[in-house]
Amino acid sequence: MTKEVFIAGAAMTAFGRHDGSSMQDLAQAAVLGALSDADTGIGQIQAMYNSNVYGGMVLGQVLMRDLGINGPALYNVENACASGATAVHLARQALQLGLYDTVLVWGVEQLTKLGGGTIPLQRNDYKTELYASQGMTLPTVYAMRGTRYLHERGETPEILAQVAVKNRGNGARNPLAQQRKAVSLEEVLQSRPVAEPLTLLQCCPSAVDGAAALVLTTKRPQVGRVPVRILGSAVQSGHLEEGCDDILDAEITARTARLAYEQAGLGPDDVDVVELHDAFTIAELLYYEALGIAPKGEGADLLRRGDTALGGRVPVNPSGGLLAKGHPLGATGVAQMVEIVWQLQGRADGRQVEGARIGLTQCTGGGIAGVDHAASSVHLLGL
Amino acid sequence: MQQELLADPEASKTGHQQTQARLAASRRRASGALVFPRVPETSPAASGYEPVELSASATLYSFTTIHPNPKTGEPPFTVVYADFAEGARVFGRLRLSGEVPRIGMRLNIIVEPNTDGQICYFFVPASEVSP
Fold it and tell me: Which of A141, A205, A328, B43 has the fewest CB atoms in 10 Å of its CB?
């Protein structure tokens, strides 16, 4: 019988500018927080999974050195923005196989040291090099989807802006979010254009630091809270983009979600709360449909009805999402799960989704041309 | 080495600064579908593809106008996905002379050497190109 995997501890730093902190400081703060939350110590950890994109080689060992690590297996995981979720996926696999009883997963990123601005595509192949030289960036890719979405669906830019209004409103309730200011539809639409139809407030902030950590175990936690289990966990890669694909079909996300649902024996109607990859507003609308929480073609209606707002049928991004909470790449997937753990255990002060029992996290990693997103990960967590 | 962009590299050597040209793509034998740019001949995967020449014009599938951070001082520019009748999609810049880009617009492909002498391509509205 497959072993159950519990999340025994969850913690994260505030996301934002941490000029006085090193990446070690951030990662260690999150790790110690998760260990404390699990009421365990680093000596009980048999393996470690470090998620990061821009930090360099053997970063995990660098980050944990001063905590006095004594030789556990340590895996450094990179899968662009899906790095953190991929690390959790790998950790869960090892636990289910019985390789370890208790492991630690963390993600960390310090993007403010890169100087801000749009994160560039990694130009290490001929196609990405060509398209980057023509002006392709991640905002460009999402803006193209936005233009096509408005055209095909007969929508106006207001529907995109409403995503930012919702998530930034949620972020204002989250003390760990980077941008804690609620905004109006007019403010979103009138903010500086970045890549039409996307304006600045429809893009996640690119200068952000932060870390998040989870303790995963096959031993039922004894800390007095209802334990959260990982019910489904899937990671998929994109496929070669050939011909003239439908750029509104988030195929990789739909495929990954289907695998996670099948593992968990659940469907979209069972999900009470979602943290998804809203790096740009258009993404949230597309992922409603890819995750099955809205029928195809009805994502905008789901948002308009208020179904995905706090208090709605299935709140999406109660943390503020990437748009407001911030998107320190390697930390994001782990932080999404920290938020869902807190939501399921009734610990999300100020933004609590009442009675939530099943939560879904989704993130997607891109950054190369010619693949319909490089990586996608979906997790289902439940009581 | 610059990626081979043109179906007929000689077409870029007409002496003109700007010239119409046809882009080089590849057809994947396994699926019959096209990819752009052409898969390099040096790739071990190249035998899985055959060369294809794209039409001189395409249809605008989607677009965005990029507004660089004001600190850069760079002006806005427009980029497009353009679909070719052969079944290939190409990303590139769209040079406009007052027109408003719209989905479904016909586009022509133009090439010119950049300051390094390398061939670059861009799109223009089809009505812009004189025969």
Answer: B43
Q: What total number of domains does chain A contain?
A: 1
| Domain contains B2 | no
Per-residue model confidence as pLDDT tens digits over B76-122: 999 999 999 999 999 999 999 989 999 999 999 999 887 777 788 99
> Which ipTM score applies to this complex?
0.93
CA distance B69 to A166: 25
Instruction: Choose among B64, B70, B91: nearest Cβ to A143.
Output: B64
**B89 vs A contacts (CB less than 8 Å):** 241, 243-245
Whether residue B80 lies inside any domain: the answer is yes
Establish if A136 belongs to a structural domain. no
Q: Which residue of A has its CA nearest to B70?
A: A192
Give the domain extent around B39. 9-128
Q: Quote the Cα angle for A286-A292-A294, to 5°.
A: 70
In chain A, count of helices (H) and strands (E)? 12, 11
Q: How many domains does chain B have?
A: 1
Question: Domain for residue A267, yes or no?
Answer: yes
Owning domain of residue A228 = 6-115+204-382
CB-based burial of residue A71 (10 Å sphere; 0-12 exposed, 13-18 middle, 19+ buried)?
Answer: exposed
Q: What is the pTM of this model?
A: 0.95
* Residue B49 lies inside a defined structural domain of this protein: yes
Nearest-CB residue to A242 (from B28, B69, B93): B28
Residue B27 inside a domain? The answer is yes
Which of these, A211, A214, A213, lies nearest to A14 by C-alpha position?
Answer: A211
Going by the DSSP 8-state scheme, the letter that residue B102 receives in this structure is -
Which residue numbers of A are catalytic? 81
Residue B14 sits in a domain whose CATH number is 2.40.50.840
Pairwise CB contact (< 8 Å): A134 & B81: no
